[in-house]
Design brief:
The relative contact order is 0.17. The protein has ten helices and eight strands. It is globular and about 60 Å long. Helix 4 (146-157) links the parallel strand 5 and strand 6. It is of the alpha/beta class. The two termini are 36 Å apart.
Length: 350
């Protein structure tokens, strides 16, 4: 998935993204048209629910667990994304640990939740899921992008249930400190994007978004089918992204993210006594204009350094040849970080 700043990423990309592109196929010869890879049939498991866990209140969240041994690892996806984004990383982690991914409320095969769908609501759902699924704690929380916010807040509220944090390319915060013009552009863009999302929501309620050919006024709501996915998987993705619950989640969550990323990492945030590993992509802003790039990199550096300052047992690892989408570009990186977190726990006597 593409990468812009925290607020812009949330508003402009996550809602209409069809998920990470899971590329396959051999490289084409110079000058030749690259052949389209055959869809990866192994991904069809994501066209069906895993285990829908009753978390109370008449709602169920979709959970996918695999592997055995070690500390249980729970994978938290980015904003607007479901468990499919972990399709490459989860099997590698499962070689040594019990590992679970899930769909947050309104996404994938999970039921929608009461509004607002903000960080507080996501953390509350995660707690309910861990309890209802009887997952072994303490567990290692791995959060990608916005998922890193969920993991951080969960550890602050339930520190005894968390053994370590792996934060996968956390979005930059407080970009306005480095570029007032960039922050203004984001603020000006937000109402327009929210208006588009509300149009998508209305189209979903009227059934027009789920039509074989949605009308032109809804053309920006859904992306075309992903050629790396089977027809079955593409149809499944389109089905849940055509529901009102998805757009309710995106709209409410987007409004919360605007303030969530507006300030820096709180000075009061602490994760002492446990490993904190921050994975930083080395190519997070492909195509960004030079002035924006400078501000984004500065804000990102400040954010990532602040996060490793929240624990005495923290480290930062730069992931080579990776965009913001580390779980797809370098799927072994989260698995290696989980192993390193367990080794760090041994060193500190945990």
């Amino acid at each position: 998935m593409g990468r812009t700043s925290g607020a812009a990423m949330v508003l402009a990309l996550a809602a209409v993204s069809a998920g990470a592109a899971l590329a396959a196929g051999a490289p084409a010869k110079p000058g030749a048209r690259k052949p389209r890879p055959a869809p990866d049939a192994s991904l069809d498991v994501y066209a069906e629910p895993g285990e829908r866990i009753d978390i109370g209140g008449g709602r169920k969240l979709n959970l996918r667990c695999s592997g055995e041994g070690g500390l249980t690892v729970l994978l938290e996806a980015g904003f607007g994304a479901d468990s499919l984004v972990w399709a490459k990383s989860q099997p590698q982690i499962a070689q040594h640990n019990r590992v679970c991914s899930y769909d947050r409320a309104g996404l994938g095969f999970s039921d929608g939740g009461p509004l607002p769908r903000d960080l507080k609501a996501d953390v509350a759902d995660l707690h309910a899921l861990i309890e209802a699924a009887d997952l072994d704690t303490p567990l290692i929380l791995v959060g990608h992008s916005y998922g890193s916010q969920v993991a951080r807040r969960y550890d602050e509220l339930y520190p005894k249930q968390v053994a370590a944090l792996v934060l996968v390319d956390p979005p930059e915060q407080n970009v306005g400190e480095f570029s007032a013009s960039y922050a203004k552009t984001e603020a000006d863009m937000a109402p327009r994007m929210l208006a588009m999302y509300r149009g998508c929501e209305q189209g979903a309620r009227e059934g027009r978004l789920a039509a074989a050919r949605p009308p032109s006024d809804l053309k920006n709501c859904l992306r075309p089918p992903n050629p790396n996915y089977s027809d079955k998987l593409n149809a499944s993705i389109r089905a849940w992204r055509s529901k009102p619950a998805f757009w309710e989640t995106v709209i409410s969550g987007s409004q919360d993210r605007l303030s969530l990323y507006g300030g820096g990492v709180p000075k009061s945030e602490r994760h002492d006594g446990k490993p904190v590993i921050v994975l930083s992509a080395d190519q997070p802003y492909a195509g960004a204009p030079a002035d924006d790039l400078k501000a984004l990199l500065a804000a990102r550096e400040q954010t990532h350094m602040a996060l490793i300052g929240t624990s005495r047992y923290a480290k930062r690892v730069t992931i080579a040849d990776s965009s913001h989408d580390i779980p797809n570009d370098q799927p072994a990186a989260p698995a290696i970080a989980v192993f390193e977190a367990m080794e760090m726990r041994k060193q500190i006597g945990r």
